[in-house]
UniProtKB/TrEMBL annotation:
Catalytic activity field: 3'-dephospho-CoA + ATP = ADP + CoA + H(+)
A GO MF label: dephospho-CoA kinase activity
Protein name: Dephospho-CoA kinase
Keywords (A to Z) from UniProt: ATP-binding, Coenzyme A biosynthesis, Cytoplasm, Kinase, Nucleotide-binding, Transferase
PANTHER family: BIFUNCTIONAL COENZYME A SYNTHASE-RELATED (PTHR10695:SF46), DEPHOSPHO-COA KINASE-RELATED (PTHR10695)
Enzyme class, first EC level, given as a word: transferase
Organism: Aureimonas flava
Taxonomic superkingdom: Bacteria
Binding site for ATP: 11-16
Amino acid sequence: MKVLGLTGSIGMGKSTTAEMFAALGVPVHSADAAVHRLYAGRAAPLVEARFPGTVRGGVVDRAALGARVLGDKAALAALEAIVHPLVREEERAFLEAAHGAGAPFAVLDIPLLFETGGEGRVDAVLVVSASPAVQRARVLARPGMTADRFAAILASQMPDTEKRARADYVIDTGAGLEAARAAVARVAAELREARPAV
């Protein structure tokens, strides 16, 4: 079974692209969704122990946690040391299930794939991209997002140009949903046809 890593900078349309693969019947694992589940479960007491006051009602308050770690490399590294191993566990279980179900390929939706060395865990990488203007408009339209927060997030991510240069596939999500859907279908068809080397 082939594994496709799906990634892209904030506001580039990664989640929408993941949904397009899922609509084609492709198994998709979202690292973000895994983190949401973990923040309401196994990770919550671990996060609270390291960042007291960031858990409310047994669930990590993402806004409170973000305020503690954004822009603080040591704090962010401490959070990643808690969360990343738990996400990897879920990822491995997902891939085993997809392989067991006979899927020709599966998608790992990983926001910081290159930044965390995740390309070593996949057979190919798909980067979603859009123009800086489209990206900025999408991100600043999100509730609670500010220009300063957007700038801080961008600073923590690998530049889009570098991601595109390192990708096996690139989809421009700024060209509209239909164009993106067609591009996803082409990538899916290629990966379904791919046969492992003997």
